[in-house]
Amino acid sequence: MKxxxxxxxxVLAIATVGxxxxxxxxxxxxxxxxxxxxxxxxxxxxxxQDAVNTLLQQIGRRDWSAAYSGLANKNDFSEAExxxxxxxxxGSLRTYALLDGFDVHPLRASTDxxxxxxxxxxxxxxxxxxxxxxxxxVRKGDHWQVAWPLMKEARVPPQVIPVNYLRWDVINRGPxxxxxxxxxxxxxxxxxxxxxxxxxxxxxxxxxLLNEDVVPAFVTVKAALLGANGATLAxxxxxxxxSHLLLPKQVSPFRIDFRNVRLSxxxxxxxxxxxxLVSASADPVIGIESQKLNPVPDASLTGExxxxxxxxxxxxxxxxxxxxxxxxxxxxxDSYPSRAxxxxxxxxxxxxxxxxxxxxxxxxxxxxxxYRSGHAQ
Amino acid sequence: xxxxxxxxNWLRATCPILLAGLLLGADRxxxxxxxxxxxxxxxxxxxxxxSVVRDYLAAWHAMGQAMEQNQPExxxxxxxxxxxDKLAETVRAQQNLGIQSAYQEQSHHLQIVFxxxxxxxxxxxxxxxxxLVIGKHGKTLGTQHVRTRYVAVLTPTESKWKVRxxxxxx
Amino acid sequence: xxxxxTALCGLLSLLxxxxxxxxxxxxxPPTVQAGTAFSVQTSGSGPATLYVVGTxxxxxxxxxxxxxxxxxxxxxxxxxxxVALLVAGTETQSxxxxxxxxxxxxxxxFIAKPSRLPxxxxxxxxxxxxxxxxxxxxxxxxxxxTFELSDPSGGTQSRVATTRNGxxxxxxNSATKAGSSQFRASSGDIRVQRAVLNVPGEPxxxxxxxxxxxxxxxxxxxPLRDCNGNAVPDGTIVTFTxxxxxxxxxxxxxxxxxxxxxxxxxxxxAVISVASGVVMGNxxxxxxxx
Lengths: 377, 170, 290
Fold this sequence. Notes:
The structure holds three protein chains of three kinds.
Chain A: H1 2-25, H2 48-60, H3 64-69, H4 79-87, E1 98-109, E2 113-124, E3 127-140, E4 143-147, E5 167-168, E6 189-199, E7 202-211, E8 217-226, E9 232-237, E10 245-246, E11 251-258, E12 268-277, E13 280-281, E14 286-294, E15 300-307, E16 315-323, E17 329-335, E18 346-352, H5 355-358, E19 363-372, E20 375-376
Antiparallel strand pairs in A: 1-2, 2-3, 3-4, 5-13, 6-7, 7-11, 8-9, 8-10, 8-12, 14-15, 15-18, 16-17, 16-19, 19-20
Chain B: H1 6-24, E1 30-35, H2 46-69, H3 81-97, E2 99-115, E3 122-136, E4 139-156, E5 161-167
Parallel strand pairs in B: 1-2
Antiparallel strand pairs in B: 2-3, 3-4, 4-5
Chain C: H1 2-20, E1 31-33, E2 38-41, E3 47-54, E4 58-64, E5 68-71, E6 80-88, E7 91-100, E8 107-113, E9 116-118, E10 125-132, E11 144-150, E12 156-162, E13 167-172, E14 179-187, E15 190-199, E16 208-213, E17 216-221, E18 237-244, E19 247-254, E20 261-265, E21 271-276, E22 279-285
């Protein structure tokens, strides 16, 4: 037993030394896409590509000081403005995101100047989002520097925005079990559309849910796929492809994805919406402006969110329902703009559409759910 | 009082224990389910019927365990409200007296007689047969074969139907 | 196997007292009302112990054979089937009896659902009553239960139902006028009341008006009412949609003080529509604008 232990230790030691040697002699050449792999390249900006890679790696390490000091246009803005351009403000999604990777593509180059398109991929709690930037790189003596395209966050002018607040508070019965004694009634919700489709080797349930009550509802939708013998093939819920908070007479789409089940196996679908009363506010109102379908190759629905209230919305969730010419739902998709919604300030959004779905879309409906620190709406 | 011969005493004392032993290896109680004509305005769906019957029988099993082991907490999973309060009181009374009772179910004939329009209660009549073995401090006092009717009202909770009214001799 | 063993044990149990012990009589009443005093006469002599066990209670008492065993009104309150054993030394006598609920209703479990429903719903409201006695036993004997529903306009619907196995139920219509109704159930002297809120139904129509404000167009609905004339409650979402040149703008606006109001950019040849839930409203075509 003891001898076996020594043998194992010896094997591990030899393997470790071997791997260190291999790593030193043949280092990872694809390090440019990894923001943590920048130490080796940090000193080199002898080419425009090196300058871009160095900068993006410094951003990945959140080394704002080093990144800022190497910029060609640092006199145009402060280091704090540079950092907040990348990390966002007001508790937005960007505030909690980390750089997951980047791609850099050259656009054009001359002896003194080059242009690149960099796509920064940020990882957040709701998935990754892209942050494309066109970077100009200029020669300064014997080395190259990047001119950072700062996106200055809009400043809201001082003003007073009058709002008539409307809010629902709920007092429940309490934990005691006095059967028959009334409790507040759960909101009445109804599935108004449901359509299963076969997609990507799985089944996708698309539908819409209406809050037909006069109070706000916290909603979820569960679905079970039943086979020909009545046996349950799979159960899933709508998770984040739904607006969980529905105000009176508001409709939310929902999408439930089942992987590894084929539509041909499914005999029936059992859908179970559930709702409960929640305290909620009718504000803020968010307008969804300039909604536009974009064709392939970048099939998407784009638009701008305009926060009509006087409060900052930290994170917004945009959900789109897409219909064909017969009014049947063909897709439900969503996105989260990475920046906070400041009062009266438009923020762009884009919802990506699968190319095959895009050609079928005749109309669409977009809704938003907003989250403020300590609130959801 | 006149004394009985030892063999009779031995038989009387051990018979229920033997019976209990035999029953341990015996089949589960036979169960018959019918739906009466008047089940309220709401029809009982197949899966509702199945889950109500399953949970009711499980409640009987839990009640039997609680009474035999004198552990009122075993009732929590299947009883609620008045039914739980009363059964728990009985278990505590048994505990104080050092009594145990074993309910050895033989058959249930269940009728679903009412399903409330809003789906929040369902009523069963259960013509049940069981042997009740009563013991004290581990010694069997007697066994009785019981045939009676229970009326039970079950109400839905998050995960299962729980018995809210549980009343024998109806 | 189970039945055979039961029969064998039953036979032995029967043989034991009859063949080998002095028979002694005790008459237990087959039915006892919950919470009432009663007594049971025993015969023989000497000390014995009485055990009464059921799902509703467990009792133990030392008794003297030959005397009657008195049960007070405090002793057996829970309805159920009980087994009684009288153990004297090695001799055991047994009996079975039922404790039944008392005849007087003392409590009603009244489930009124839903507690909030749209106006004018035929049979939209249900009331279910379980009748209980003073000891929370279910009264399985038929009882008359009266259901009354008063609506916000002062009218009252009334129905009488008789319990079956302890339960009675009715269905009632919701009021035509929005507001709170009182839903009462009574049996004997016992009366229980629930509040039911009649809420407005879907908006009957949705009509918006517009006026210009610079480059923007101000949109405001008329006060929304359902088809019975009840004001649709504040917070109800109204959706404004502006379609222009292959693009669109939408805003979900909650009703406040009965109306929904928003501002949109006035775009040339835009068509603006309004809807609430599944009810579509009118359209406005913008003639000027950007």
